[in-house]
Every structure is written in C-alpha cells, then in structure tokens.
Design a protein that fits this description.
9 helices, two-stranded antiparallel sheet, Beta-Lactamase, elongated, 21% strand, alpha+beta, 39% helix, 2 domains, 228 residues, 7 strands
C-alpha cells in the first residue's frame, strides 16, 4: 500500500466513533485509530498509532485480549487468513487501566482491482453493557428456577409473535412431563381438569391479541393424580 493511501485510510479510521484498525495481509496488526489507541493506553509514539509496519506476527494483537479469549480468537483469525474471508468474533479487550471490556469485532478483507489482498480492516464495538445484561438475565433465570423448585410453582408463557408456548422445568414436572418436553396446547389440556379446560383454551387463544396479564386457576391432573 502506498504512503498516501495509508494516510487517507488512517485519517478516515480516526474520525469513526469506534475502535477501528487495519492489519497487513499477513494478519499483523499495523494501525489502531486514536480512539482505540487511547482506550488501550498506547504511548503517543507507539507504532500502532502511526501505522508503522514492524513485521509483527500474525497474532500480535492477542496480548491485548483476555487470556480466556486467546485460543478462540486465534482460531477465528487463522481461518480468516487461510480462507481470505470476513469474520465476526466477540472477546474482551484490556483498557488503559488493565480492566477488560467486551467487544464485538468485525473484520473484512480489502482487495485491489486485481483481487489481491491489500489489508484487513476491522471495527470493534463495545458490548460490555449487553454482556452484563445477559449475565444478569442468566442469574435471574437461575434464581427463578431455584425458587420455583423450592415453592413447587411453575411458569408457562407464550411468544406472541410465533404463538410458541414455553414453560419452566418445574412447570413441566407439575404437569407430569419430563424436563425438556416441548409444550403444546394439547399437552397442557391433557393435564387440566375438564371443568377448567375452557379457561385454558380462552387464555391460549387471546394471548397473541392482548397485552394484559392473564391469571387463571387450574386443577392440574398430574400423572400421580390421574393414576397413569
């Protein structure tokens, strides 16, 4: 790549409000934009700020990542270099304070008119808050499952966009089905007292059309109570 093209590329990446970078065809990280360099705490004269090709290894960026993400990132990056294809990966990047934040990284090959690979260009977007929310949701789901087991209370719901019914493992147990059983209206109705069946049918029918919370009392016929 000629010097003027590199200068234009660096200027472009520096105005993008995200961590952007480019790498040599070999995979060696060559340039990190100002936002990314500041995040990592790189010195003002660091080669990566200036786009200086130091002949680094194809995986020279790995030390910036969390140790637990090294192997998977190497695998994905190695496949990019082998196939010449784009990729997307998620990993944790160390900041200037030594803390790690989750990033989703997208890398694309840039080729000349003759098809020759000129360099790899990438962008890293912060997804730390999303990861924290996902972890909080997993913890809440775990606590809910434990609470349902202790209280012997199950939950049944419906995805209104697909009309797919779902239930907790404790609900499946209460209804007399093995954990992992995919719930259907028929399976539920098989365990409901005949006098309450119309309540369940009405609730299932109206669920996709109403945002209201529906509460009904059921007499559930489990395998034990039905003698099966």
């Amino acid at each position: 790549m000629n010097d003027s093209l590199e200068a234009r590329l660096q200027a472009t990446l520096n105005v993008i409000p995200a961590n952007t970078w480019y790498a040599a065809p070999s995979g060696a990280l060559t340039f990190v934009n100002t936002k990314g360099a500041d995040f990592a705490g790189l010195p003002a004269d660091h080669p990566l700020r200036l786009g200086i090709d130091t002949g680094a290894a194809w995986d020279s960026h790995i030390p910036f990542l969390h140790p637990d993400d090294h192997d998977e990132t190497r695998r994905v990056w190695a496949n990019c270099l082998k196939t010449g294809s784009a990729a997307e990966m998620t990993f944790r990047v160390r900041d200037s304070q030594g803390e790690y934040r989750w990033r989703i990284s997208r890398v694309e090959p840039l080729r000349g008119s003759d098809g020759k690979l000129l360099y790899w260009i990438g962008i890293n977007l912060d997804v730390e808050e999303l990861k924290r929310a996902e972890e909080a949701l997993r913890r809440n789901e775990h606590f809910l499952a434990e609470a349902q087991i202790l209280s012997r209370v199950g939950s049944v719901g419906m995805d209104v966009s697909t009309k797919r019914i779902f239930w907790s493992e404790e609900a499946a147990r209460i209804y007399g089905y093995a954990p992992g059983t995919e719930p259907t209206p028929d399976l539920i109705l098989q365990r409901v007292h005949p006098e309450d069946a119309h309540l369940v049918r009405d609730a299932i029918h109206m669920a996709p059309y109403s945002a209201r919370r529906v509460e009904i009392r059921l007499t559930v016929l489990t395998r034990e109570s039905s003698g099966s």
